[in-house]
Amino acid sequence: MSSVYLVGAGPGDPGLVTLRARELIARCDVLVYDRLVNPELRTWVKPGCELVYVGKDAHVHAIPQDQIEDLIVARAKAGKVVVRLKGGDPFIFGRGGEEAQRLARDGVAFEIVPGVTAALAAAAYAGIPLTHRDFASSLSFITGHEDPDKHEFRVDFKKFAKLGGTLCLYMAMGQLERIVGELRAGGLAADTPAAVVQWATTPQQRTLFTTLGQLLEESTRAGLGAPAVIVIGAAVKAAKGIGWFQARPLFGKRIVVPRAKEQAGETRRKFEELGAEVLELPLIEIHPDFDKEATDDVFAELATYEWAVFTSPNGARFFLEEVMRRCRDVRALGPVKFACLGPATAREVEKFHLEVALKPEVATADGLAEAIIAQGSLENLRVLVVTGNRNRDNLPRRLEADALAIVDCLQVYRTDLTDLSKDASVEIFRTQGADAIAFTSASTVESFVQQARHLALAPGARRPLACAIGPLTAAALREHKIPVDVEAPEHSLDGLTAAVRAKLAKKT
Asked: How many domains does the chain have?
């Protein structure tokens, strides 16, 4: 078994990380990572994992290369599982070969995990086919980064000019004038198509299409710099009409998702599929929280309830996990029927292979109460409402007062405020702002207001639109004097996503 893994982190988009890379990041004891590794990858580590930053910027190295190698070897010989996480692919302009040689010399077992290299990803996300039957049958990867103490290029760009095909230049922005001059001197025509792709595969991606002759002037005028990949060759002109990534409807927009981090996944995915940059503000933390005496009472009479009512995915998940822990058999639930507030909550119940009998058309507490009452008389029948510590009592009150049901409420989770004082996402929000905040419940509004001292926007930051998933969330915003810019007509994540998309499209 290896003790060191030289792992490619890909070009920036976490979705392009290999399954093997994710598995190793999740179980390593030490994560040694570079500057261009997406910060999200660091959240995949297990508790207690040691994080070591060894990033390099122009002439500024957090740790010199020989010391990086010393560190990796030392941790491995101390019995630690080490992941050396490198942007792109570890063996393409990443000094992974040097690190592998050092490990081999020192007798440390290691494994190489390839990654998607920057040129392949930048071209794909800019719509540039690097090879094409009509334009290019060869492909060259070339580094533009040279030792500053040398007075000549190690790479003979004049020869590459004569070679033809597609040229992909890494780390070349600082030497662009010199490289263009060498290529032109080698005979490459000034009208040869060229492109610069900066921050490829990320929401900050910028793409410039130009020619070799105009490459330096236009990239300087556009303010493009590292990290960037330069693509030169006839194949670049085939990109016309197939630049899919930056054409997505919310590309260039920043959407804030204020939820517990473990809950933000689905909301994040929906906005990211539309091209948005999603900034998670982990305002709250969700924890299981059962009162033992109350839970014992409910479980003693579990099969006597007519309905079990869930108003949130958390409540459904924690309650049903407790059923499986205590009873080991869903038949302990007896003939109880399940009612859920909204599709996300229903999906949590269905994960346990249980059928949801009722989902209201209007996803509000009143809508759920009316839908349950409409199913038939509840007089003297028992109803269990599963809640958290911040749930309102509208639903149980209506079931008792209007339907004469016998209602028991069981709290199964607790919502606490997160410490945001040193959160990187909060700093981005404060200094830069956003285009919209997607509020998915009244509790996220309450949390946002309670954390307001950490979230005050700096002068010049974009003021985001306040977007509510439904009427209860909108009412909570208005209660706190926050104007409601968007209220989703369909009270679901899909409805909220569509409403935000429509509003931002009009704003643009």
From this structure: 4
**CB under 8 Å to 461, separation ≥6 — which residues?**
429, 430, 431, 432, 433
Last residue of a domain, one of 239, 269, 302: 239
User: In this structure, are 413 and 291 located in the same domain?
Assistant: yes
CATH of the domain at 292: 3.40.50.10090
pLDDT value at position 148? 46
Which position has the token pair 């307001």? 452
- What is the CATH number for 127? 3.30.950.10
Asked if 365 and 375 sit in the same domain, the reply is yes
Q: Which residue has the higher pLDDT, 396 or 21?
A: 21
Which tokens in the block code for residue 155?
């790479």
CA distances from 110 to 34, 88, 96, 203 (A): 19, 19, 12, 34
Is the model's pLDDT at 151 over the cut of 70? no
The CATH number that applies at residue 13 is: 3.40.1010.10
* Amino acid identity, position 409: C
d(CA 292, CA 239): 63
Total-model pTM: 0.76
pLDDT of residue 247: 92
The whole-angstrom separation of Cα 370 and Cα 7 is 55
Known catalytic residues are: 34, 56, 171
**Distance (Å, rounded) from C-alpha 488 to C-alpha 261?**
23
Q: Count how many Cα atoms sit within 13 Å of the Cα of residue 215 in the half-sphere of its side chain.
A: 31
Domain that holds residue 66: 4-116
Give the Å distances, CA to CA, from 223 to 198, 207, 318, 332.
Answer: 10, 11, 51, 65
What's the count of helices (H) and strands (E) in the chain, helices before strands?
A: 18, 22
What is the maximum alpha-carbon separation in the chain? 92
* 246 located within any domain: no
Considering just the CA atoms, what is the radius of gyration of the chain in Å?
A: 28
Contact 338, 358 (CB under 8 A): yes
Counting residues of the chain whose pLDDT is more than 70, the rounded percentage is 95
User: What span, in angstroms and rounded, lies between the C-alpha atoms of 24 and 161?
Assistant: 41
For 481, the token pair is 């004097």
Same domain, 175 and 221: yes
Same domain? 14 vs 101: yes
Q: Which of 95, 116, 137 represents a domain boundary (last residue)?
A: 116
Arithmetic mean of pLDDT over the chain? 90
Q: Which pair of tokens denotes residue 313?
A: 């995915």
Torsion angle (degrees, nearest 10) of CA 14, 17, 19, 24:
-90
C-alpha dihedral (286, 291, 292, 295), degrees to nearest 10: -90
Mean pLDDT value of segment 55-74 = 82
145 or 426, higher pLDDT: 426
Asked if residue 249 is part of any domain, the answer here is no
